[in-house]
Amino acid sequence: MIDRLILHEYAASGNCYKIRLTAAHLGLAIERRHYDILAGETRTADFLAQVNANGRIPVLQIGERFLPESNAACWYLADGSALIPGDRFARADMLRWMFFEQYHHEPNIATLRFWLAFVGTAALSDLQRAQIPGKQAAGKAALALMEDQLARRPYLTGDAFTLADIALYAYSHVAEEGGGFSLAGYPAIRAWLARVADKPRHVAITD
To answer: Phi, psi at residue 81, to the nearest 5°?
Structure first.
């Protein structure tokens, strides 16, 4: 039996959303505590001492324990479920896509969405503005790699819907909200997004 689950989150964050989406697919009840990251609420002394010394969300609270990092939290929730393949190679391949999401996808697509759609160009530093073209190029490269994979398979690891799909759906489906990304040229990604959204227990990021 899983202990009481509390998600410390900023609701518009895809990293927070992927945990809610994992819980929804598993039929798990999860409480939500909201923090305004634009107001610095995850940088207070209390938050740093009690929730996450790294000053970031999401953090999944499991009873009295705290688990930062979105993909680790998703894994904790899904361990032993059909969202994690039983086959050894398939499980490693799922992790490969989850690592890809955090190293190549999220730092570019998610970061530009946050900078341009939430913070605003005028509030960015000179260094941040200088990084925009590079992040746009890297984000498009990540989408191209996903497009190639999904043109050959219905889901990222093959025929089965896994945590890899949840992890990459979170920011892919809102990629057009900021940063100059358009999904018009990625038909396989658009079809995959529709398949994921059509799952019976799917919840929207705005729910």
So the answer is: -100, 175
Nearest-angstrom CA–CA distance, 164 and 118: 26
Residues 6 or more apart whose CB falls under 8 angstroms from that of 178 comprise 112, 113, 114, 115, 116, 117, 118
pLDDT tens-place values along the chain, 207 residues long: 568 999 999 999 999 999 999 999 999 999 999 999 999 999 999 999 999 999 999 999 999 999 999 999 999 999 999 999 999 999 999 999 999 999 999 999 999 999 999 999 999 999 999 999 999 999 999 999 999 999 999 999 999 999 999 999 999 999 999 778 999 999 999 999 999 999 999 999 998
Cβ-based neighbour number of residue 53 at 10 Å:
11
Torsion of CA 113, 114, 117, 119, to 10 degrees: -150
Residues in the chain: 207
